[in-house]
Design a protein that fits this description.
Blueprint: H1 2-12, H2 23-28, H3 30-64, H4 69-74, H5 83-213, E1 215-220, E2 224-229, E3 241-247, E4 252-257, E5 268-272, H6 276-289, H7 291-301, E6 306-309, E7 314-318, E8 323-329, E9 339-346, E10 349-350, H8 365-374
Antiparallel strand pairs: 1-2, 2-3, 3-4, 4-5, 6-7, 7-8, 8-9, 9-10
């Protein structure tokens, strides 16, 4: 709306409407060059005629005041004939010049206003051009933005279609994987059924063995049993021996013996699953065969700070924080072997053990530890 008003104002102030008001431009035209001499000649003739008319008027007035011809001849001539007319003419000329100056001032003021108007018109034209350029830029930006939005919408649409297709493919893959997993679950359930039957059979075997061989079941899983062997047939009191039985898919077992505080050497036994009972009996018999020695060592655990190494048959006695004694047990101890003192180390240095001997002739481990713990020089 503002642009339309500006354009209308510029049309109204177009210089073509002002050309008829400027005398300079009129003189520059061919018509002005022709009319100027003509008007000047007309003005000169009018002045000459005006003077003649003034003389005629004076003569008529003079003749009108005479009564006879003699009076015309005898009366002297007036000193300034046509003086009144000349005064009137000068007054008119002065008024004319004043009006001319006034008109020239108005023309000058109008010209200044015209120039100011032309300057404002140029400013408006510049602003209109800038506004038009801005308008075109805005239209171009809108067009680019619309095109960019259109491309973005297309890209989003393509991405959405790709995402939908990818999701559909994922769903199809999940369905296929679900079918495979379902088949695998069915197979595993069938295998679990077989393992359950095997476990039930083993549980029955364990229960029977427990009743006959004094076993205690600690834990059971799909492939592992944890047991404690209770050596009730031993002549001395022994701690339970902890073992684990791991079953493989090829109908084999892996039997692991844990030392704990029982003092038996840790070992592993492998074999067919049907031989597991015989393996347990063999381990228990070996444990009972060393029952006298292991019973003594188990009792010493509750009285002294000792560490038993069954593989080396070495007993380490920690008397104090700085005194460590090493004793070795011979094969067949205590009935056919002896317990001997190997070394005593105090503050990192070995002591002389030549004179260290309990008062008995063949001391056992208990007598050695009681003697060493009460001996003041170590």
């Amino acid at each position: 709306m503002a642009t339309e008003r500006t354009e209308a104002l510029l049309e109204r102030t177009d210089p073509s409407f002002l050309k008829s008001c400027t005398t300079t431009e009129l003189q520059e035209t061919e018509e002005g060059e022709i009319m100027a001499p003509y008007l000047m000649d007309c003005r000169r003739k009018q002045k000459h005629v005006f003077r003649q008319l003034c003389v005629v008027v004076d003569m008529i007035q003079l003749l009108a005041g005479l009564e006879s011809v003699d009076q015309l001849l005898n009366k002297p001539c007036p000193q300034n004939p046509g003086n009144e007319a000349r005064c009137a003419w000068k007054a008119l000329k002065a008024e004319y010049l004043e009006r001319v100056q006034e008109v020239e001032g108005m023309i000058s003021s109008l010209w200044d206003r015209t120039e100011e108007l032309q300057g404002k018109r140029k400013t408006l034209e510049t602003l209109l051009s800038v506004l038009q350029i801005k308008k075109e830029e805005c239209k171009e930006k809108e067009r680019i933005a619309a095109k960019r939005n259109q491309r973005a919408e297309k890209q989003i649409s393509f991405q959405l279609e790709d995402s939908i297709q990818a999701a559909q493919n994922s769903i199809n893959a999940c369905d296929l994987q679900f079918s495979k997993l379902k088949d695998e679950v069915e197979k595993q359930q069938a295998r679990i059924s077989d393992w359950t039957i095997l476990r039930d059979g083993l549980q029955t075997l364990v229960n029977v063995t427990h009743r006959n061989m004094a076993y205690r079941l600690l834990s059971v899983s799909s492939s592992e049993l944890c047991l404690e062997l209770l050596p009730r047939a031993a002549e001395v009191s022994l701690e339970p021996l902890r073992v684990s039985i791991t079953m493989t898919t090829s109908d084999e077992f892996h039997l692991q013996v844990f030392q704990g505080t029982a003092g038996l050497v840790e070992e592993a036994v492998n074999g067919r699953l049907r031989q597991v009972s015989a393996a347990l009996v063999e381990v228990l018999e070996r444990y009972i065969s060393q029952g006298e020695m292991l019973s003594e060592i188990q009792a010493l655990h509750s009285r002294f700070a000792i560490d038993w190494c069954p593989a080396e048959k070495l007993l380490i006695f920690l008397k104090t924080a700085t005194t460590v004694c090493h004793l070795r047990v011979e094969e067949g101890y205590p009935s056919h072997g002896r317990a001997t003192l190997l070394s005593v180390r105090k503050d990192g240095s070995l002591l002389d053990i030549t004179d260290l001997q309990p008062p008995v002739q063949h001391p056992v481990l208990t007598e050695w530890l009681e003697f060493l713990s009460s001996y003041p020089n170590i």
